Amino acid sequence: MEPACAGRRHLLPPILSCTDLPVTRRAIRSASKEREVMSSHDQLPAVLEVADLSVEYRDHSRTVHAVTGLSLAVGRGKTLALIGESGCGKTTAALAILGMLPASATVVSGTVTVTAEARPVNLLGLPARELRMMRWRHIAYVPQGSISALNPIQTVSRHFRQTAQAHNLARRVAEARAYDLLAAVHLDPNRIWTSYPHELSGGQRQRVSIAMAMLLEPAVIVLDEPTTALDVLTQEAVLETLLELQEATGVSYLAITHDLAVASAVADRIVTMYAGRPVEDGAAEQVVAEPLHPYTRALLKSMPSVDSDLAAEAIGGHPPSLAALPAGCSFHPRCAIAQERCREAGHPELIAIRGRQVACPVTVDRIGSAEATA
Ligand SMILES: Nc1ncnc2c1ncn2[C@@H]1O[C@H](COP(=O)(O)OP(=O)(O)OP(=O)(O)O)[C@@H](O)[C@H]1O
Ligand code: NI
């Protein structure tokens, strides 16, 4: 029998019971063999590379360590999902990458390298004007919440025209491209062109935001919670559209989500974030099939599953305040396998194991001793 997740309507199946989910992704994308070969070529530089990024919010009384030591690399034509619970620093990471942090935030360390047209550029070192030109043209953003992404008093056409003007894209060229893009995201351009955001459904607004992000043909798009406010069927349809666009254009995505099902439906790589830090980084199929970090495991167990008899298990406890992190591993107060050493000293570094990276020495030791006795 065909696995339940092989069908089109199951882009977001219960992942616990369906480890072959990434097949869905591959099936959608396999049309272009050529690109498959190109993008699997490890020699190609990452389109977006973030190294040791740390961001703090400071006010007179406290420092919020929103992002600490985040590193990730998004391959050409690939999707990396950055996953983690609400408040773990995902949006802060996105805003830092795009150079759009509010004044209260400070980038403490790191580089953000975008390689478009074979030229690597560190966005964090750019003057504001040059950064504005890079944005949209090389790296675009679909912000969290499709309502806030669009200006309520502007029509769809005005949104496209403004972006085109800001980047010296001729009006006729921009309009032709906008029409094509709106059709590509399965909207009727003629109908939608003069609409205001409130006249559109949540899914339609998200599609407009995605089409706008594509206007300057960027190499990479940062998608912050691309489907969160949408019902499940609309979520699936929007994710499928994102994969179609990727197939057609070779665009890369950094997809930010708290939803592991979304991540496993679209991502080639998954980076798990906990309390501002990366704790696991690996190929999506591997991370979903065999999560190694206790937090990624807990996230996976907390997913509801329709097919499985196993009930979803909420993760016990709460994430720590990013203004008052516990000593040692930030996850230790909620961790089922925490030992004395996890409560001491600094947060564990990422360790390479089984083709990925995991910030948990206890897990790494367990795997090591299991392999030694096998
Ligand atoms: N402008 C700000 N000033 C001070 N603290 C902030 C600011 N914006 C966010 N924070 C804090 O930084 C931390 C990370 O927030 P962020 O929005 O990046 O997390 P997130 O993972 O995107 O969460 P969500 O899933 O809710 O969108 C939180 O503790 C939040 O309260
Ligand atoms: Ni967020």
UniProtKB/TrEMBL annotation:
<keyword id="KW-0921">Nickel transport</keyword>
<dbReference type="InterPro" id="IPR017871">
    <property type="entry name" value="ABC_transporter-like_CS"/>
</dbReference>
<dbReference type="Pfam" id="PF00005">
    <property type="entry name" value="ABC_tran"/>
</dbReference>
<dbReference type="GO" id="GO:0005524">
    <property type="term" value="F:ATP binding"/>
</dbReference>
<dbReference type="InterPro" id="IPR050388">
    <property type="entry name" value="ABC_Ni/Peptide_Import"/>
</dbReference>
<comment type="similarity">
    <text>Belongs to the ABC transporter superfamily.</text>
</comment>
<keyword id="KW-0472">Membrane</keyword>
<keyword id="KW-1278">Translocase</keyword>
<comment type="subunit">
    <text>The complex is composed of two ATP-binding proteins (NikD and NikE), two transmembrane proteins (NikB and NikC) and a solute-binding protein (NikA).</text>
</comment>
<dbReference type="Pfam" id="PF08352">
    <property type="entry name" value="oligo_HPY"/>
</dbReference>
<protein>
    <recommendedName>
        <fullName>Nickel import system ATP-binding protein NikD</fullName>
        <ecNumber>7.2.2.11</ecNumber>
    </recommendedName>
</protein>
<keyword id="KW-0813">Transport</keyword>
<dbReference type="GO" id="GO:0015413">
    <property type="term" value="F:ABC-type nickel transporter activity"/>
</dbReference>
<dbReference type="GO" id="GO:0016887">
    <property type="term" value="F:ATP hydrolysis activity"/>
</dbReference>
<keyword id="KW-0533">Nickel</keyword>
<keyword id="KW-0067">ATP-binding</keyword>
<dbReference type="GO" id="GO:0005886">
    <property type="term" value="C:plasma membrane"/>
</dbReference>
<dbReference type="GO" id="GO:0015833">
    <property type="term" value="P:peptide transport"/>
</dbReference>
<keyword id="KW-0406">Ion transport</keyword>
<dbReference type="InterPro" id="IPR003439">
    <property type="entry name" value="ABC_transporter-like_ATP-bd"/>
</dbReference>
<dbReference type="InterPro" id="IPR003593">
    <property type="entry name" value="AAA+_ATPase"/>
</dbReference>
<dbReference type="InterPro" id="IPR013563">
    <property type="entry name" value="Oligopep_ABC_C"/>
</dbReference>
<feature type="domain" description="ABC transporter">
    <location>
        <begin position="48"/>
        <end position="300"/>
    </location>
</feature>
<dbReference type="InterPro" id="IPR027417">
    <property type="entry name" value="P-loop_NTPase"/>
</dbReference>
<keyword id="KW-1003">Cell membrane</keyword>
<keyword id="KW-0547">Nucleotide-binding</keyword>
